[in-house]
Amino acid sequence: MASWKNGIAKITLPTPFPVGDVNVYVVKGERLTLVDAGVKTEAAWNVFTSELKELGLSPRDFEQVVLTHHHPDHIGFLEYLSPEMEVYGHPINQRWLLRSEPFLSEHQHFFYQLFTEFGISREFSPIIDSLKKQFKHLPKRILTGTLVEGDIPIGLSEWRVIETPGHAQSHIGLFREKDGTYIAGDHLLAHISPNPIIEPPLPGTSERPKSQLQYNASLQKILQYPIKLVYTGHGEEITDVPDLVEKRLQRQHQRAMTVKKWLKSEALTVFEVCIRLFPKVYQRELMLTISETVAQLDYLASIGELDINMENGALSYMVKS
C-alpha cells in the first residue's frame, strides 16, 4: 500500500514485460508531480488509481508528469491522463512520443543495417518488423517542456536534474540535496544491472551511441553527489550507492574479460559472441542480449583491446596481437 515518506509516495505497478513490476512516484512540491507514468495497460491503471485513492488522491490531482526516460513501462499513463496535463522530460523523449514517419523509417533502416554489421542470421530479420509492435505500449504525446542537466523542474524547486544516459539516451534522474534523496529511474537498480539498450543515432549524428560506455560514465557521475537514498524504477530502494556502483562496474568488467578470452584465439562477430554469452536465451530475447553483447565489445574497444575488421559486410572482433 502506498504511503508518504518525506513528501514521496511509491506506487508499484504490474507490467507485461520480463522486467516485472515498475515503480512510479508521487512527489509533493509546489506542484503535485507524478514521476514516471507506468505502462499502458488496464491492469496497471486499475492498481494505480486504487493506490492513489489510499493516498486521498485521484489522477486529476496531478499538475504535471516528469519522465525519467522514454521506455514503455515508464510513460504509458500519458495515454490515460488529461491531454492538458503538462509533461516534462529530456528532449530525446520527444521522438519516441511523436514517432513521426521519418523517425520510424530511420529506426527500421538502422536495425536492418545493424543486423548485417553484427552478423545476425537472416532467420532473425522478422524481429526488426516486430519492433514496431512494441510501439503499441507507447502513447502519442508532445512534451510541454524539456529537462536537461542542472535544471530545476517547475514546481519542484528542491530537486535538480542529473542526466544519466546509458540505459536510455533520454535518461535523467532527480536529486534533492537537502536530504540526499535521488529518484533514479532505471539508472541504478538494486537487483540487476540495467541493460544498455541499443538506440539509433541521435539527431545530427551518424553513429549509434555506445550505451555501455555512457552507462559506466553515468555511474561514476552519480558518485559525485551525496546520495543517501535511491528510489528506483524497479525493485527496492538503495542506500549504499558507492558499493553498488563498484559492484556494477566490476561485474561488467568481468564479463568483458570473459569475452576477451574468446577473442584471443579467433575473430567473432557480435552475434557469435552473443550466442556464447547467452546460449539459453538469445533466441527468445535477441534485442536485449545483443545490446548486452555489443556493450562488452564497445568496452573492450574503448580500452584498446580489440582489432575490428569488416568481413562480408559484418564486423569481426579479435584481441590485438
What does this structure look like?
The chain has 321 residues and is an alpha/beta fold. The chain has 2 domains: 4-97 and 138-239, Metallo-beta-lactamase, Chain A, CATH 3.60.15; 100-128 and 253-321, Arc Repressor Mutant, subunit A (Orthogonal Bundle), CATH 1.10.10. The protein has helices at 42-54, 72-75, 93-98, 101-117, 126-134, 211-222, 241-265, 270-277, 286-302; strands spanning 4-5, 8-13, 22-27, 33-35, 64-66, 86-89, 145-146, 159-163, 172-176, 181-185, 229-232, 306-311, 314-319. The strands form 3 sheets. Strands 1-2-3-4-5-6-7 form a 7-stranded mixed sheet, with helices on one face. The protein has a 4-stranded mixed sheet with strand order 8-9-10-11, with no helix packed on it. A hairpin with an 8-residue loop joins β8 and β9. α7 (241-265) packs across α9 (286-302). The longest helix is centred in the last third of the chain and has 25 residues, at 241-265. The model has no long low-confidence stretch (mean pLDDT 95).
How is the topology of this model organized?
Layout: E1 4-5, E2 8-13, E3 22-27, E4 33-35, H1 42-54, E5 64-66, H2 72-75, E6 86-89, H3 93-98, H4 101-117, H5 126-134, E7 145-146, E8 159-163, E9 172-176, E10 181-185, H6 211-222, E11 229-232, H7 241-265, H8 270-277, H9 286-302, E12 306-311, E13 314-319
Parallel strand pairs: 4-5, 5-6, 6-7, 10-11
Antiparallel strand pairs: 1-2, 2-3, 3-4, 8-9, 9-10, 12-13
Helix pairs in contact: 4-5, 7-9, 8-9
What attributes does this structure have?
4-stranded mixed β-sheet; 321 residues; Arc Repressor Mutant, subunit A; alpha/beta; Metallo-beta-lactamase, Chain A
